[in-house]
Automatic annotation (TrEMBL):
Keywords: Hydrolase, Metal-binding
EC number: 3.5.2.-
Organism ancestry: Bacteria, Bacillati, Actinomycetota, Actinomycetes, Kitasatosporales
Name recorded for this polypeptide: Phenylhydantoinase
GO CC field: cytosol
Family to which the UniProt record says this protein belongs: Belongs to the metallo-dependent hydrolases superfamily. Hydantoinase/dihydropyrimidinase family.
Annotated Amidohydrolase-related domain residues: 55-441
Pfam families, A to Z: Amidohydro_1
Amino acid sequence: MTRTLVQGGLVVTAAEETYADVLVEDGKVAALAAAGSSVARGWTADRVIDATGRYVVPGGVDAHTHFDFPFGGTSSSDTFETGTRAAAWGGTTTVVDFAVQTRGRALREGLDAWHAKAEGKCAVDYAFHMILSDVNEDTLKEMDLLVGEGLTSFKLFMAYPGVFYSDDGQILRAMQRAAGNGGLVMMHAENGIAIDVLVQQALAAGRTAPRYHGEVRRALLEAEATHRAIQLARVAGSPLYVVHVSAEEAVAELAAARDKGLPVFGETCPQYLFLSTDNLAEPGFEGAKYVCSTPLRPREHQAALWRGLRTDDLQVVSTDHCPFCFSGQKELGRGDFSKIPNGLPGVEHRMDLLHQAVVDGHITRRRWIELACAAPARMFGLAPHKGTIAPGADADLVVYDPRATQVLSATTHHMNVDYSAYEGKEITGRVETVLSRGEIVIDERRFTGRTGHGRYVPRTTCQYLA
């Protein structure tokens, strides 16, 4: 049994901030004691990490990643090996990725394929959601089995007709099943049928540049789908989690539902908080780097997103990390924006960008940890082992320097993608040392982890519904 002592730092959790020393034994948090107290002075350890002048925060939980994800004739450029290593560099110690059901095939077959992609390759811990592409009697029964095994969330799409799209009847049936088995339905809320009409009209009119990706995927069509998903969940008596919320009007739909006391939740992502349609409109084909769905919105939507994060109408910030290289992948859409693979890199920068939001006054330090660590852990059944620093929790710890500055760039990031969505952005705050289950995986800005350290984590059901 190894003992590690992290001493002298300001321990920040969603619940409190206190100067405390943290004792780690055998991969778990064994105890906390006030810094300099007689209890802390009596501790001995094999390793001592000096966190003086630093924060000690829980490892981040990114509940929305897509590693090695097939889309648009190609696959996302980060594998589970490269993606989880980049996550560790950014202070994220648990990711929840999406296993994909192939239309016409069993959920189990898709889940087994994703286990094969991830097993023995991850640098940090991981879990899965299940993408439901084909709702039928067999897959509805499989939902019950997967919940019993610790895969407790299922994503459906109101977008991408012919690929992942489910109609309202299929969505209702899946929600009814989730209402009975304790699962959580995650929804990509955009009116894909209407969007496809606007896409074809834009292309026919010669509007082919990346900027039109954002223009056809109207904010109102995100809001309409969000409203419809909420009403279907009410009919089914099920909870609902809306992914990658980007539009002010969609936030308003979530807020109205929550004001009624409905079990409706929402996430947003750093790209919607820090980027905008200005990026999609960058000259030439540069805007393709910023094509994702839901799309980037005009900058004026950001105020509503920040407000939603402060008022808890949005509970989680995930990345929807789904990178495609500009060269050879994003370029598939030259001359036709609808063929640009949808997705941005971000798993490495979420914790830092949210700390920048603290510096900028958008959120508090504790809210930073709530959004990035504690809330996703509770939402997806990973608490109390993940998302906090408390006796018995996994020793997923980040020593964070709140005063260090860094410039985000493709030349220095560790994601397997040839551009940065935040190229040249200077931010304050930087991950210094990272422990995953007590093992140092980043040691003063050096990667000391290993492929295969990360374990698969079965989950309980959503802990906001207990």
